[in-house]
Design goal:
Layout: E1 10-13, H1 21-27, E2 33-36, H2 39-44, H3 46-57, E3 61-64, H4 73-86, E4 90-95, H5 97-111, E5 134-138, E6 150-155, E7 160-165, E8 173-176, H6 186-205, H7 211-233, H8 238-258, H9 262-274, H10 278-307, H11 317-334, H12 351-360, H13 373-382
Parallel strand pairs: 1-8, 2-3, 2-4, 4-5, 5-8
Antiparallel strand pairs: 6-7
Helix pairs in contact: 4-5, 6-7, 6-8, 6-10, 7-8, 9-10, 9-12, 10-11, 12-13
The structure holds nicotinamide-adenine-dinucleotide and fe (ii) ion (FE2).
């Protein structure tokens, strides 16, 4: 069987690496950018840390900031219009998964106008042309969307998240500057960091996992266990932020190429139907779904426990596997993630609608243990 691995053409890492941006734009022979970001990042001054670099270099740009967390088809369509009007030849995405995913949608539709309805991009759409060049600067340490071939957009009509998988959408260049993450509040640092841990764990146990993806995911698990509490407790400590910035990128390098699983499949409907932040939804579900997956993952869970720093000497394989679930739950509680759907105002009568979307989600078939809709209902009930 052939294995495929797709990554950015070039990526930069380290505090202050956003200053490479003018040289990148020059090398790619680009002349004007549409900056895709959101209102929160404009307000808090993080987007300005990047546009200052453009200003200093005299590089022209316009800003499109009509992007909401858990972005929509409308966000993409308006962005396509803004891109056309601006006369730009590239996109600079500054933000979390929402800004980067919207930029991917804009870039794909602009160069493949036959998909301008956006909804036909769901799944693996047969686009012919590469996206408009995207330079992506993440401001959360979570999604790794700067290196993935996926983007997630809400179809408002169906109130469902569409996962779009398309190698043509990958940002040409990723600039992963941990200084852009210092302003991320505690709750979002915790949630986005737990999203990254979910990527690493699901990417490690997914059906498509293999030696190369395992190498990335285990390193990411180790770095997240070591750095997430520090990033949450001390937002401007460069060690925690740099560790998380790298770890989420490393996790995404692999999961983008091998897929995810049921945690993402069940988290997506929580985002589309209840606007729950993506990382919170994943974190809340992760330990319970690990328990469900345990029979298929005993050995790998033991490795996860060890990688997270648990001393598994003398444990049986089952005890070591349970120790992984316990370590994940303890980390989630430590960083302040809510543990029940009822904490998020989701009620028992909402579960069938959530389950109907979860069973149809693109991520669900990647789960190591096959699952039925009835089992998904039971899993949501467990975390109620
Ligand atoms: N493309 C992929 O591979 C992929 C993977 C996982 C998730 N996703 C998608 O990404 C989206 C979630 O992205 P996210 O979790 O990164 O959050 P986000 O982009 O939705 O941002 C959440 C909030 O955080 C704020 N914020 C972001 N960075 C900040 C900073 N440095 N300082 C202050 N505030 C900041 C934003 O303004 C926003 O209000 C979801 O739609 C999810 O489905 C995509
Ligand atoms: Fe995710």
């Amino acid at each position: 069987m052939a294995q495929r691995f797709i990554l950015n053409e070039v990526s930069y890492f380290g505090a202050g690496c956003r200053k490479e941006l003018p040289a990148v734009l020059k090398r790619l022979n680009l002349h004007k950018a549409l900056v895709a970001t959101d209102k929160g990042l404009l307000k808090v001054g993080t987007a300005k840390m990047v546009t200052d670099v453009l200003d200093e270099a005299g590089f022209p740009y316009e800003i499109y900031s009509e992007i909401k967390p858990n972005p929509t088809v409308t966000n993409v369509k308006q962005g396509v219009e803004a891109f056309k009007k601006s006369g730009a030849d590239c996109l600079i995405a500054i933000g979390g998964g929402s800004s980067m995913d919207t930029a991917k949608g804009i870039g794909i539709v602009s160069n493949n106008p036959e998909f301008s309805d956006v909804v036909s991009l769901e799944g693996c759409a047969p686009t012919k042309n590469k996206s408009v060049p995207i330079i992506a600067l993440p401001t959360t340490a979570g999604t790794g969307a700067e290196v993935t071939i996926n983007y997630v957009i809400i179809d408002e009509e169906r109130q469902a998240k569409m996962v779009c998988v398309d190698p043509n959408d990958i940002p040409a260049v990723a600039i992963v500057d941990p200084e852009l993450m210092y302003t991320l509040p505690k709750g979002l640092t915790a949630a986005t960091g737990m999203d990254a841990l979910t990527h690493a764990i699901e990417g490690y146990i997914t059906k498509g996992a293999w030696v190369m993806s395992d190498m990335y995911e285990l390193q990411a698990i180790k770095m997240i266990a070591e750095n997430l509490p520090l990033a949450v407790e001390e937002p401007t400590n460069p060690v925690g932020r740099e560790g998380m910035a790298l770890a989420q990128y490393i996790a995404a390098q692999a999961f983008s190429n091998v897929g995810l699983g049921l945690v993402h499949g069940m988290a997506h409907p929580m985002g589309s139907l209840f606007d729950i932040p993506h990382g919170v939804a994943n974190a809340l579900l992760l330990p319970t779904i690990m328990e469900f997956n345990m029979p298929k993952c005993i050995e790998k869970f033991g490795v996860i426990a060890k990688t997270m720093g648990v001393d598994i000497t003398g444990m049986t394989a089952e005890q070591a596997a349970q120790a992984a679930v316990d370590a994940v739950r303890a980390l989630s509680i430590k960083v302040g993630i809510p543990q029940h759907l009822s904490d998020l105002n989701i009620k028992e009568e909402n579960i069938p609608a959530l389950a109907a979307q979860a069973i149809a989600d693109v991520c669900t078939p990647g789960n190591p243990r096959d699952v039925t809709e009835a089992e998904i209902i039971e899993l949501y009930k467990k975390v109620l």
